[in-house]
Design brief:
The protein is α/β, with parallel strands linked by helices. The chain folds into two domains: 218 residues, Rossmann fold (3-Layer(aba) Sandwich), CATH 3.40.50.300; 94 residues, Arc Repressor Mutant, subunit A (Orthogonal Bundle). It contains 15 helices and 16 strands.
Length: 395
């Protein structure tokens, strides 16, 4: 208006804008399977690179060019900054490295249908935030959103994560709950959405969930629904301050093309990645994290199984005096008291929870009725004596 010296007013400009809104085509949803580079897009379903198109509807792209592969391309030589982060995060363990790569492939390929969710846990400065940032690069920033575990548990707040392929729960504070929302989303169930000023509805949320925290989440669910879906990736090593590179993420971003190609080639058979993640679920380090977060899992780590139900009796709270070397429930109460846990489970809740918790150790609970009560196939390990069983001090 000023350039052509035409008269204008606020209402007149608003009318023009309203008219343009009616004339301009409505913007579509960004393609979930494309990673945007400055010079084009990489299709994660075909592994092909192509030019930008308006129909992709990408709102952001990574600020680096996609580079063609080099002869003999590998991570250590052609993505050295990513490789340095990976080896430190994995504690120099090859097995852990490939499992972290499998987790990144799950994000890249948007394999929400594996019905798993990722939890990266460890002290501050161990590389967890870098993992989340790399995942965001692989999913595409348009397809990534941040939330909290409480967001996933609330039908009102869940509206904010609909339409995204990667949901990051960054810097998750210490949390405990049954995890019904995260269990339903990762299980492929339709969940209730109750957005403001709109009618409530239910829908599936086809997204990979990545939680990042200093303290592992504590789930009260004892059905096994959360445990079957949870993949814990501990990052235990704190990188010394003098070894941290503030530009590390920018350098890794420049290696994105190499990383994407490596993941696509490494997991040509996607189920290889899934098998690695399932192996991580049952790893010793993941079990150690669960033991630290859940007293019942920790207690069950002191139990051994025999072939027949000739071990500890289940017992109850009315048997006096307590005999933790004979009764399983008494042993549990003794363990809770020795460790300073204030709220032991009731006998009924304990009896329901133990079979599923024992499955973390690949132990099947066997029981039989006797004149002295229900007898199990469980016995106490020798570690109980040193760690928490009551002792009679010899004067």
């Amino acid at each position: 208006f000023q350039k052509i010296r035409a008269p204008f007013s606020a209402s007149g400009i608003n009318s023009v804008l309203d008219t343009l809104k009616l004339m301009v085509p409505q913007m579509g949803t960004p393609a979930r399977y494309l990673i945007g580079f400055r010079n084009g897009v990489f299709d994660t379903t075909t592994g092909q690179f192509s030019a930008h198109q308006k129909t992709h509807w990408l709102r952001t792209v990574n600020s680096v060019d996609y580079t063609p592969p080099k002869a003999g391309e590998n991570l250590s030589d052609h993505a050295p900054h990513f490789w340095r982060w990976l080896t430190r995060a994995a504690g120099q363990q090859h097995e852990k490295q490939v499992r972290i790569l499998a987790a990144l492939y799950m994000v890249l390929a948007n394999r929400y249908d594996w019905q798993l969710f990722l939890e990266v846990t460890g002290p501050g400065g161990s590389g967890k935030s870098v993992m989340a940032s790399i995942a965001s690069l692989l999913a595409g920033k348009d397809n990534t959103t941040s939330a909290t575990i409480d967001t996933l548990e609330s039908s009102r707040e869940r509206a904010s994560v609909v339409g995204f392929s990667l949901i990051i729960l960054p810097d998750q504070e210490r949390w405990s709950g049954d995890g019904a929302g995260i269990k339903a989303i990762t299980g492929g169930d339709a969940v209730a959405i109750d957005p403001k000023y709109r009618d409530a509805y239910s829908t599936h949320i086809p997204a990979v969930i990545l939680a990042v925290n200093n303290n592992p989440m504590q789930f009260s669910d004892r059905s096994g629904g959360v445990s079957r879906r949870r993949v814990i990736l501990p990052f235990p090593e704190v990188i010394p301050a003098n070894e941290r590179d503030p530009l590390l993420l920018a350098k890794i971003t420049g290696e994105l093309a190499v990383i994407v190609r490596h993941l696509m080639q490494r997991f040509i058979a996607p189920n290889d990645a899934r098998a690695l993640l399932e192996a991580q679920q049952n790893s010793d380090e993941a079990l150690e994290i669960k033991r630290g977060a859940d007293p019942l899992v920790d207690f069950c780590g002191y139990l051994l199984a025999v072939n027949t139900p000739n071990g500890l009796y289940m017992g109850n709270a009315n048997i006096i005096p307590a005999n933790p070397r004979k009764y399983l429930y008494h042993a549990y109460l003794s363990f809770m008291e020795a460790r300073g846990h204030q709220r032991p489970m009731s006998l009924t809740a304990f009896g329901r929870a133990v079979p599923q918790t024992l499955s973390e150790y690949e132990i099947a609970l066997l029981k039989r009725k006797t004149n002295q009560g229900m007898q199990t196939n469980l016995i106490l390990s020798e570690d109980c004596e040193a760690d928490w069983l009551p002792k009679c001090e010899i004067p």
